[in-house]
């Protein structure tokens, strides 16, 4: 009855549902406070107070036609201009409203730009480990996902393998820094090397290859680390942003794309992305949330909570003998499984009421992701369980 | 640089932009009050006051995790239950929350259900004239659009031709009543005949053929006309709804799909639609608007304004000798062009500062669409121009 292309998703869904049901069973058996769910990237901190104030003020100040009506498919022009100016101020860029397209979250933005760029058979590169949903987004347009294997020491992209994976059919490279699932921030050196490889390959093949920079975690960084703004290093860069994490608004689906003037084919990209936003059924980003985020552009949720969680979890897990990548951003800890099979390891962890996500879901078996966007108290209560888990393998 | 599949859209966009620029030029030359833009289906009436109150109350009453956080991809369960109960009360159906999937407007909903149902090469039928965007939605999934020519007397679907167009590859039929662009409401007799044809063809081919009922105009009806609830006549019906018109919220992108229990493959449809909502990049319908519409389910914008406009425009145009379909719903008047070529007629109308949409855009040349979701005063001021336009052809 359903499309053949959807059958595998329905099968996959039942696995997820089974996991979810199992979590509920564990909670019923042991008490919710004794089950430690580290599986979801769902922000645990509330939006800053300014979001509520913005929404309330907007409701009272804005005439209904502007507040809830249609606008240009790319979004409210003053909102786009405000986003551009905020980027310029923070990153030394030179954007204006024409470079900004408001989107239904980053997921919407990525689909819009992939529809804009990719024909069936075009190749899209991503660096493992990466957010598994990219596979689905690329498949929506009949694109072919090409995976660069991880450098399992640094989890910075493997530049040499990257160069080898680029072909005449390569249309785009998705990068995600700060990274889900590793928490790694790509260094300026990494970005420069990626840009160099791409400039060379563009010349070699006489093609355009775009970086699609997926940046929902841009503001979630620790220890004063800087996240390079990619458009400054490579001109064919499209940025996809979301307020889901920075303002803790994941249910509202609000984000934007940046398409810089200097991108090859700028005018056509702009026009095609505007049309893609419409014909994919997004039409435009939700109006009231566009107006709200425009008033909170330099605000964030309380990131110090995530930093506390990060340090607590990293230090304890290392002390128990786990091999972890020290995260500089996002809200995930990337941990080497204590046996080769990460799925078997995740099942073992479940015996201790620890719910983790296998690295296989991120095209990187042998590891697990621990999401620390959770209550700090839950993290503290979980330590004894992680210690027992470690001891199983000693 | 852009995808080959997007080139035609970029070319089409420049035509739309040229029209828009021309409108602005006319306004600059003759004064905005002397240009009569009947081209856009953008609601001119404000949302009911209850929408503002709902949003304000929700902001004050709801904890941030529920207000702005992730929820099930299908939407808040209590919102879905409220939608289901409202439908049951109004239409005598028997839905519950599991039958409702909250979507990013009807455009989002249609894309979700097409992704759920259609593989490349599958055939989707629509009755001309129809909203041209359906072509794009079907193309998103590699589907083949099959057009049933209009019955140009009644603009009810031509049942005989419909039967002939169904093949073993027919996956779905999109219907839209009240109709954009004609304003026609399909009669109960029409719906029964469509259902009969489909049941017979399902048996003949051993296939499932779904009705996708696109219903953004369900509440916009006049003269007490009833719009049959399609799931009661044909069990393989999926309803796509939007609050864009009934609550004048087009910029907020909020609507829902109804997937009835009795639809063939119900469980798989439900699961696949939930996944499709996620992987197409919608993820979920905007949270705050889900909560808001749940509090305004039996409210509408002031539809009497559209009724006034409808009567004024229909009566005058008929008195000038135009041949019009008397609309029973939506906010469009469907008028026979006074020459064979509707595009040439639209250009002639432009000489009188009347901006109309050619029927060709709705797969039905020889007609034009006049959107009367505009200020009543503008309609009155436009009469002298319509009269001059008619006289051109006498």
Sheet with most strands: strand arrangement of chain A: 2-8-7-6-5-3-4
Q: State the shape of chain A.
A: globular
Q: Largest beta sheet of chain A, briefly?
A: 7 strands, mixed
Would you tell me the structural class of the helices and strands of chain A?
A: alpha/beta
How much of the sequence lies in strands of chain A comes to 5-15%
- List the quaternary state of the chains: homodimer
Contiguous uncertain segments of 5+ residues of chain A: none
How many DSSP E strands of chain A?
13
* Gyration radius over CA of chain A: 21 Å
Terminal-residue CA separation of chain A? 50 Å
Largest interface: A-B, 77 and 77 residues
SSE string of chain A: HEHHHEHEHEHEHEEEHHHEEHEEEH
Percentage of residues in helical conformation of chain A = 40-55%
**What's the overall average pLDDT of chain A, rounded?**
96
**How many alpha or pi helices of chain A?**
13
Provide the descriptors you would attach to this structure in a database record.
alpha/beta, seven-stranded mixed beta sheet, globular, 13% strand, homodimer, 394 residues, four-stranded antiparallel beta sheet
């Amino acid at each position: 009855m359903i499309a053949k292309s959807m059958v595998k998703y329905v099968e996959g869904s039942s696995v997820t549902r089974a996991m979810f049901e199992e979590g509920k069973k564990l909670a019923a058996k042991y008490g919710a406070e004794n089950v430690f769910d580290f599986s979801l990237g769902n922000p645990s901190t509330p939006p800053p107070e300014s979001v509520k104030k913005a929404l309330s003020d907007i409701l009272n100040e804005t005439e209904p036609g502007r507040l809830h009506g249609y606008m240009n498919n790319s979004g409210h022009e003053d909102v786009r201009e405000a986003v551009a100016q905020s980027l310029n101020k923070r990153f030394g860029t030179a954007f204006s409203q024409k470079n900004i397209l408001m989107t239904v979250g980053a997921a919407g933005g990525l689909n819009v730009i992939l529809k804009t760029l990719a024909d069936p058979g075009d190749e899209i590169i991503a660096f493992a480990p990466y957010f598994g949903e990219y596979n689905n987004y690329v498949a929506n347009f009949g694109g072919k996902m090409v995976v660069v294997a991880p450098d399992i020491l640094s989890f910075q992209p493997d530049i040499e393998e990257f160069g080898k994976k680029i072909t005449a059919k390569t249309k785009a490279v998705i990068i995600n820094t700060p990274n889900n699932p590793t928490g790694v921030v790509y260094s300026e050196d990494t970005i420069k090397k990626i840009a160099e490889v791409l400039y060379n390959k563009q010349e070699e093949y006489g093609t355009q290859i775009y970086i699609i920079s997926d940046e929902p975690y841009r503001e979630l960084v620790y220890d004063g680390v800087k996240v390079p703004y990619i458009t400054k290093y490579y001109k064919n860069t499209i940025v996809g942003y979301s307020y889901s994490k920075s303002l803790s608004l994941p249910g509202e689906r609000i984000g934007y794309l940046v398409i810089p003037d200097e991108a090859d084919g700028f005018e056509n990209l702009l026009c095609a992305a505007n049309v893609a936003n419409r014909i994919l059924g997004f039409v435009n980003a939700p109006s009231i949330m566009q107006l709200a985020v425009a008033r909170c552009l330099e605000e964030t949720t309380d990131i110090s909570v995530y930093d506390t969680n990060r340090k607590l979890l990293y230090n304890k897990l290392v002390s128990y003998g786990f091999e972890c990548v020290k995260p500089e951003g996002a809200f995930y800890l990337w941990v080497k499984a204590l046996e080769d099979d990460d799925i078997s390891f995740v099942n073992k962890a479940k015996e201790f009421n620890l719910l983790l996500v296998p690295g296989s879901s991120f095209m990187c078996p042998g590891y697990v992701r621990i999401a620390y966007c959770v209550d700090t108290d839950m993290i503290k209560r979980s330590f004894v369980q992680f210690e027992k888990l470690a001891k199983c393998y000693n």
